[in-house]
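Tutorial, part two.
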Amino acid sequence: MTGKTDTILVAGAGGFIGGHLARTLAENGKTVRAADIKPLAEWYQIPSDVETRQLDLSKMEDCMQAVAGVDTVYMLAADMGGMGFIETHKADCMLSVLTSTHMLVASRDAGVGRYFYSSSACVYAADKQVDANVTALKESDAYPAMPEDGYGWEKLFTERMCRHFREDFGLETRVARYHNVYGPIGSFEGGREKAPAALCRKVAEAALSGRHEIEIWGDGEQTRSFMYVDDCVEGSIRVANGDSPEPVNVGSSELVSINQMVDIIEQIAGIRVKRNYKLDAPLGVRGRNSDNTMIQAIYGWEPSTRLVAGLEKTYHWIHSQLTTRGGELAAG
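Running the prediction step on this input gives:
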């Protein structure tokens, strides 16, 4: 290919993780092109010294524009959200296969050197996640296939496409399976937010309003591990630059229940809340945790930010957003 540069494309850069990734790459001195379907005014963050493009990456012509002259692609673009979204938008989540497929084809045709794909722990077989005291999931637990319906199937299918584009066309693909990423500068309301942000928002609203009660989906005993966004970014860069083509977990191994997470947020907020349990809410699997044996063996690294530290930063950011909004409304 002629005209290829050392430019790095972050697809989905208007989103939560993509915004943090684009900023970190730019701060590390990389030449970054950021693309997203959302208007720039709706991006969570627009880092300085980053080329920005509003593109619909479900369309082949937009994908070709995005990858032109690019050496490395970080593919994070997808229609997704928290459990409340993916449980009720299964077709929308599966339509991300258009974006996934077109980006792979465009990258192959443009001679991209390295292609990173952000997959998800939702690819793991549901029958291995029925107990809150779950055995941590290792990479081989994705088969025999029984992923999260809709979103998980699309992610697993695209993992296989990445494998076969590497085998058949020589495109160097790398795959990371993210486990429940959270942190500041992301969704915390509106239906697409994930549990840490939703609970931080609910507790912050309780603190600000003086009405100390919140709603919790399920009985609160469902378990997960939650990865702070800075760890997610570092893990993504390590996997993208690494030599192993096999999908690898990028997630914390610190397993907690939802009730335990609320305990932590209460301590950060300095209040206690009454917990109202919504037992008919979308829940996903009963328990999920990351087995980090593979990432430790290959990269000598694993996510290390403790939940209490990450939640403290996340809570204070969300609290400040709500406080600022409240002040603006009062001034208006």
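The radius of gyration is 20 Å. In part three we will examine how such features are distributed along the chain.
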